[in-house]
Every structure is written in structure tokens, then in C-alpha cells.
Amino acid sequence: MHQHALDRQNSMKNKYGQPAAPGAAFTNVGFANDEHGAETIFRRKSGNANGLQLVENICAKETVPQISPSMDFDDVLPLIGEFGKYQKMLFLLMIPFATFVAFVYFSQIFMTLVPEQHWCYVPELEGLTVEERLALSIPKMSGIREYDNCKMYDINYTEILAKNIRMADTKWPVTVCRHGWTYNFTGYPYATVATEQNWVCDDDALPTYAQSIFFLGAIVGGLLFGWIADKFGRIPALVGCNLIGFAAGVATAFTMNFWQFALMRFFVGFAFDNCFTMMYILVLEYVGPRYRTFVANMSIAIFFTAAACALPWIAYFIANWKLFAIATSAPLILVVLTPFFIPESARWLVSQGKVDKAISILKRLEKVNRKHVPTGTFQTFSASCMKIKQEENKNNSYSIIDLFKTPRLRRTTLLLIVIWMAISLVFDGHVRNVSTLGVNVFVTFTVACFTEFPADTILTLILDKWGRRWLACGSMIASGVFSLLATLVPPGIYFAALAIMGRFFVNISYNIGLQYAAEILPTVVRAQGVAFIHIMGYVASIIAPFVVYLEKVSPVLPLVILGGLGIIGGLLALLLPETLNHDLPQTLSDGEEFGRGQSIWDFPCLTKKVDEDSDLEVRPTNFVRSAQTGASLRSSTRAELRSSILRRSVNSRYSSKL
Q1: What is the dihedral of CA 590, 593, 594, 598, to 10 degrees?
Q2: Is the Cα dihedral 220, 223, 225, 228 positive or negative?
Q3: CA separation for the pair 301, 294 (Å, rounded)
């Protein structure tokens, strides 16, 4: 019991904020359990390492030791359980939403696949074998042995057959395809919307336009459901965006032309990010600071990765693009069950002045986790919430324009925008480039998506040790280098492997990106600033399909562009200040001064300082990721970002001085 009390003595200071005053008879608060299992508070006498004297029993007296007048969610969570039974259930309930976002994001790739080998259809030659039709009707492309995809000989095929001619004369006149195309479906076991409606040759850019329209829908949906989340709550916004994704996704299967298809993809875009991110934020709100890095990254690493890896094989075995569209959209209807299992955001309730409802949710967590919190704690928490709300109301006078009024803050903001746009474009470019790597797209896509698992796992282990700046720089440059190396080898397994390594490293960069922005920008404009940067990332994603489309000019051109952007983005990251182990800026003046004096060679994991008042070596206070924890999928609304963007960890790390 004594050892347990000693182990937890520092946590008392963190929870309640007030250690014993200097010179007091008793110092170093500790905990232990009595014979009934009730948690009891002790203080250790100065100079007596083993002497513990009972001060008070919380359960018996229902009194609270001196509680800090400023108590937020991160102070309450350790008392009700940081990752107890309730939070573990919420963690598992992220599975369907992570699956939804993978299906919404990637499904169009497998609805618009076009086999590399396709040729003009000539109805008069229907009775011949494929080889005979090609030899008689399709010219070969200049300088290579491949048949042209978009041209045919302009002759009277009935007369040619009557003369028993079975080989084309290269001097015959050539024209464009008149009667559609035939496709070699070897490796592609089903027709797609692109092959059914012949989006090839002069119309081969239509899938690219549809994908860009999808991201336009994501921008509109982000703004719309951000307003809904602010006005009506996170749960209505979560349900609403998923229902629109469900309706538009199912309707996609019944479209008859490009514009109908593109319109449905626009509305499916409403659900992109929002269908998962709001759930992601909700869960992180109820998880203690120590577990947020794990929950945030591993939910992506396990749930999102599993869904993304399964998606191509769902398409492969269904082998019908219309049924595939329905199968990947219909599960979104399950979101109507959300209000019965997922609590509303307690932080949003507080922001609306509904503190009692927020406390009732916290008490539910307390009950499920089998914890006991003194009544006075919730009273203090309620008073603190009202004070915080008043402070937030004062911040409403600031706008994103304030980020551009002073030179250093303006420079930092512009760097964040450019870097995040580069990361977004490179990431989405690698996602969509899998169909051009010269290897079976189903296998390649699965392997590329699986890189999310080791990327997120590695990030979970090292991000809060190595810091943001050099990790962002190194991962982006590595992505660029591997992308450029891929251009030096012929199409095939090595080409695909190097490109996938580029995808692996940009996964790491992507997961760092928006957290970095949320840490650097001052609190008073953080929500608006990160939301704006996120939308600029959508703008870059609109461009990404066109970068991949350049494959029509040269198979290596997309990787040249993606590689160059990766290296440029990585080098620019070095110009940002490091945030790990630094107090985050609160005001605009803090933001202007943040990072001044930092060396570009500063490495947080090598930085140590000694506490002059003790014999302890102290690592600077860490900041634990909260709502803005890095991931493949990022927050897009002011409402989400307002939900505890970043909270300082109340636990400092101590180690014995060597």
C-alpha cells in the first residue's frame, strides 16, 4: 500500500493542481486503497520516507482536497478513467466509421478502371478471333509493337473480307473509332462505368474530372457540416454526412451518363473525411491524454488500413461496378444507430452552455469504468467550464486575417499552407497512381494501403520523442527520393516497389501535417487557421488526379512531379519551429515570437535540462495530441478543431540524473 501511494504522489499534484505549500508539515500527496477498496489520500511527512499519515478518505467524507479553480476535461479524465471499459467500447465503435471513409475515398478507383489494352470495335469483324481483328483493323503505334487504342483503318471491311484479306496494309487510311471499343479484361474481371460508357481516348479525362468534382464536394460538405456541427452538434453532423454519402453512393449505380455520375460523386464527397473525422474527434475527447496518441494513430493503422486493403478484393469478387457501388455505400445507413451508442461531444455541450448534460455524460463514463469521483469535483469542473466559455467568446473577435498581419506569423502560416498542400497532393497522387505502376492494380493497391499500418505504428512510437520538424522533413524527402528512384527503373515489380515506398513515407508526413499546424498556430485563431489550411489541402487534392493523368504523356511523369514536390515540401518543413517540449502559443503575440531563437539543428530527443531546485533531470513538458492527432484522414471544420485542439499533458517526465 505504501509503495502504491509513493508511486502516485506526483499524480495528486497533476489532478488537483495544488501541492503542499513550501514549509508545510506534510508534503507529497499520495494514494492508497483501504480495506474496502476506497481510494484514500495520504501525505508524506517531510524527511520521513516511510511515514504515511492519513489526511482524509474521499469516499467516507465525500470531500475533495484543494482543487485547482481551473479544471478542464484533461483534469477530470484521470478521475473517471483515461482508457477504461467505456473508452475501449468507443475505440471499437470507430471500426464502421473508419471503414466508411476508406470506402468513400477509394471506391471510385475501382469503378473507373480502364484496361490498358483496348481497341476500336469493328462490327463487321465480329466473327474473327481477337488476333485476326487486330491484325486487320488496328494500326500499330509509331515506333512500338503495341496496337493503337484510339484508331482504326478507314476501309470497307465487308469488301476486304470478301477478298479473304487477313492482314492490314499500313498504307490504308486511318480514322478514329466509330463504333465504340473492345477491352482486354485480363486482370480486370469486370466492366466498369468507364468501359461501359467508353471514357477512353478523347474522353479518357472524364474519370479525372469526376475525382476532382468529388473533392469539390468535400470542400462544400466540410463547410456545410462544419456549420451543422457548430449549430446542432457533432452527432447530427456525423449522421447527416453519412446519410448523404449513403444516398449518393447507392444512386451512383443508377447513373446513365458522365454528368449524372459526377453529380453523385459530388454528393458522396460530402461524406469524405466528415464521415469518420467527427467520430474520431468524439472518441479522442473522452480518452485521457496518455492514450490519445495510441488511439488516434492505431485506429487509422488497424481499422482504416484493414478496410482499405479489403476494398479491392470486394470489387474483384463482386465483379460488377454497380453492385460494388451499392455494397460500399449501403453500410453507411448504419449511422442512424449512432445516437444510441455514441455520446454527444461533451466539449460542444459546454460550448453551448449545456454543462449539466456534459457532466451527465462524464458520470456515465464514471459508472461504466467503475470509478468514484467526489461531487465537489464536478462542481469545480462546471465552474471552470463557464469560465472557459467566456474566454472563448472573447476569442471570437479574432479572424484568420490576423495570421497575416505580422511578419513572422505570416511567414509561418504561408509555410504551413504550402507544406500541407504539397503533402496532400503527394499523398493523393500516390493513392491514385497505383493503377499505372505496371503491376496488377488489386495487388498493388493492397500493398500500398498496407503501408499505412507500419507508418502509423512507427509514428506512435517516435513522434513524441523525435519531434515534428525533422520527422516531417525526413519523411517527405524520403518519399520524394523513392518516387524519383522509381523513374530510373523499367515498369514492373521494382518500379512498383519504389513507388510504394514513396507512398509509405508520405503516409508518415500526412499524419504529422495537420497536428503540426494545430500546434504552431496561436490558440485564439487556431481553429480557423487549421480549417483554412485543411481546405487548401482539398484544393491540392483536386489537382492530384490531373498529375496522375500526365501518365498519358509519360508513365514516369507523375512520379517525377510527386517526387519533386515531396523534396521541396520536406525542405520547407525545416523552416518551421519545433513544437515538441515547447509551450504552445496562446495569443497572436505568442505566435509572432514562437520559435524565435530556435536552431534548425535542435532535436527534441537530444534536449535535456536540469531542474535547479532538485537533483532531477527534467525533460520539458510535453504536449499530448488531442483532437488534432495526426492521421490519413484529418479534421475539416471549425467545430471539430475547437474540440480541445491540443492540451498540455499535466505529467512531466522525470528521470534520475546520471
Answers
A1: -160
A2: negative
A3: 10
Q: C-alpha grid cell for residue 306? A: 484493414
Give the chain's length. Answer: 658
Question: What pLDDT was estimated at residue 623?
Answer: 35
Max intra-chain CA distance, the chain = 114
**Quick one: cell of 455?**
507508418
Edge-to-edge, what's the strand order for the sheet holding 39-45? 26-33, 39-45, 52-57
For residue 308, name the pLDDT band (cuts at 50, 70, 90).
very high
CB 222 within 8 A of CB 160: no
Cell numbers given for 274: 466528415
Question: How would DSSP label each residue in 196-219?
Answer: HTT--GGGTTHHHHHHHHHHHHHH
Best mean pLDDT range from 34-38, 408-412, 640-644 = 408-412
Please state, in angstroms and as integers, the Cα–Cα distance from residue 264 to each residue in 222, 268, 318, 323, 538, following that order.
17, 6, 21, 16, 18
- The mean predicted confidence, pLDDT, of the chain is 78
- Alpha helices, DSSP H, located in 147-205: 157-162, 193-196
pLDDT band at 255 (very low <50, low <70, confident <90, very high): very high
CA 72 to chain centroid, in Å, comes to: 26
Determine the Cα–Cα distance for residues 611 and 393; give it in Å rounded to an integer: 37
Question: Facing residues of 140 across strands?
Answer: 147
Q: Is the pLDDT of residue 520 over 90?
A: no
Q: Is the pLDDT of residue 386 over 80?
A: no
Structure confidence at residue 535 as a pLDDT band (50, 70, 90)? confident
For residues 76 and 282, what is the distance between their CA atoms, to the nearest angstrom? 16
Three-state helix/strand/coil letters over 315-326: HHHHCCHHHHHH
- Please give the grid coordinates belonging to residue 583: 509551450
Question: From CA 631, how far away is CA 1, in angstroms rounded?
Answer: 41
Q: Taken in order 555, 556, 557, 561, is the CA torsion positive or negative?
A: positive
**Cα separation, 300 vs 210, whole angstroms:** 26
Look up the pTM and report it: 0.75
DSSP conformational letter for 620: P
Domains, the chain, in order of start with CATH, read 2-66 (no CATH), 118-184 (no CATH), 403-621 (1.20.1250.20)
Mean pLDDT for the stretch of residues 419-423: 93
Percent of the chain with pLDDT over 90: 31
